[in-house]
Amino acid sequence: MKIKVAKCAGFCFGVKRAINVAEGALKGLKDGDKIYSLGALIHNPQAVEELFKKGLQVVTSPEKINSGTVIISSHGAPVEALEEIKKKKLKLVDATCPFVKYAQNIVRELKKDGYRIIIVGDSVHPEVRALNSIAGKSRKSKKLGIISQTTQNKVNYINEIQKILNEDFSEVKIFNTICNDTSKRQSATRSLLKDCDLMIVIGGKNSANTKRLWQICKESGVDSFHIETELELKKVWFKGKSCIGITSGASTPDSMVKKIIERIRRF
Predict the structure, then answer these.
(1) SS3 content of the chain, % helix, strand, coil (to 5)
(2) pLDDT on residue 202
């Protein structure tokens, strides 16, 4: 039985950066200091748990914080939350992914120029909620500005654009805000599907980009399983399989990928 691992497995640049920012802030803590993450820093429960053990507490709103340091997650934060942090004079540490920042800046420019902004993505995802807060209330302008959640599936994005272009508009601006790492992971996963008869997708069940990888695998017809840790693996999955493909979401640690490979080899 062969095991093939996608070239882009492990943490992406933005996640590594967020982890490093948080680790640096935690090292600078003094006795009695409190440090919070506004929402999960990244969408990987195991990595978030490790940071919690070091002192990083996750909160859903700055309203619950009276003093201390607040780290903005890799997904960004709504304008209202940032204003509340400023109002309370809390120390702010921004770990927003640079690719997410790029999308946010596009939204600001489109808003300033009077475009109706259309964001293709998961409306409840923290990244999209932050983008929506920057965009503000929907305008009735016939000038359309279209962007995507950075972890969106490119095929889905193109399909949604085609639907939008059936609307009445005078002008349209389309931006490819899908991050390069997301595109590479999806491409690498599709390459594995050509050779493998079983796919293991590793990553948080709350991770949008991991769920998109799993969706790609499921749609291919190849037997596929989405797991977070090696403890979820079942020996029966591998019976009669000749090639196992392993791919992971952008917030999956390299160490978890290695643990899963080791357990599969023991099977």
Answers:
(1) 45, 20, 35
(2) 97
